Amino acid sequence: MNWDFIMKYLPLYQRAAILTVKIGIAGIFFAILIGLLCMAVQNLKIPVLRQVVRVYIEISRNTPLLIQLFFIYYGLPKIGIRTNATVCGIAGIAFLGGSYMTEAFRSGMEAVEAVQLESAYSLGLTRWQTLQYVVFPQALSICMPAFMANVIFLLKETSVFSAISLMDLMFTAKDLIGLYYQTTESLFLLVVFYLLILLPVSLAGSLLERRLRYAGFGT
Q1: HEC-encoded secondary structure of the chain
Q2: Measured between alpha carbons, how far is 94 from 101 in angstroms, rounded to an integer?
Q3: Distance between CA atoms of 44 and 31, rounded to whole angstroms?
């Protein structure tokens, strides 16, 4: 192991990790918004929009992120929609993640039994109060494992950003391997930085799941 090489290019990996996290967080944020919007459309059973959401979910979940990025980065400029690599990465994560978040949120909402809504209405709670105090707390605890799994999945999917020339962690590792043939050291740094990004997220997710476990709602 060439430790001099590792120490020399450690700052380069740090900058790449920051870019990876920034794009990942931004993409996940928009994926959550898309997921909430699509879930609302499905629950309200709006005829035309519901079909549009279904088509979007099938396309998004059954095509690779790499193909989606190529379509956004290389395809959209053909019809006059131009963007840079960073925006393309965020849009790709949001497009892919939105469908997964939709299904996670929908499963949480549908898991709440109808009798609980009826009981809430019989007690005089309004529709919003029922959602706020009865449905949302249970749906949140139910969908949390799937939600955190989606977050980790989307952060790992940022590894394909190198295909559109984003200086992320994977791009940095491949670039250094091509220039200096220091494969072991470059991949070692790649693994270390992905662990530094994903392990805290995984631990935080496990903590949230325990705190919001179904039928427990805390400790």
Answers
A1: CCHHHHHHHHHHHHHHHHHHHHHHHHHHHHHHHHHHHHHHHHHHCCHHHHHHHHHHHHHHHCCCHHHHHHHHHHHHHHHCCCCCHHHHHHHHHHHHHHHHHHHHHHHHHHCCCHHHHHHHHHCCCCHHHHHHHHHHHHHHHHHHHHHHHHHHHHHHHHHHHHHHCCCCHHHHHHHHHHHHCCHHHHHHHHHHHHHHHHHHHHHHHHHHHHHCCCCCCCC
A2: 10
A3: 20
Interatomic CA distance for residues 20 and 9, integer angstroms: 17
Q: Can you give the pLDDT of all 219 residues of the chain as single tens digits?
A: 788 888 888 999 999 999 999 999 999 999 999 998 998 888 777 888 889 999 999 999 999 988 998 888 888 888 888 888 889 999 999 999 999 999 888 888 888 887 887 888 888 888 778 877 888 888 888 888 889 999 999 998 888 888 887 888 888 888 888 888 888 888 999 999 999 999 999 998 888 877 776 544 444
Q: What is the pTM of this model?
A: 0.85
Between helix 85-110 and helix 3-44 the angle, nearest 10°, is 50
* Residue in the block written with tokens 């053909």: 78
Q: Which amino acid is at 127?
A: R
Domain 3-211 has CATH 3.40.50.510: no
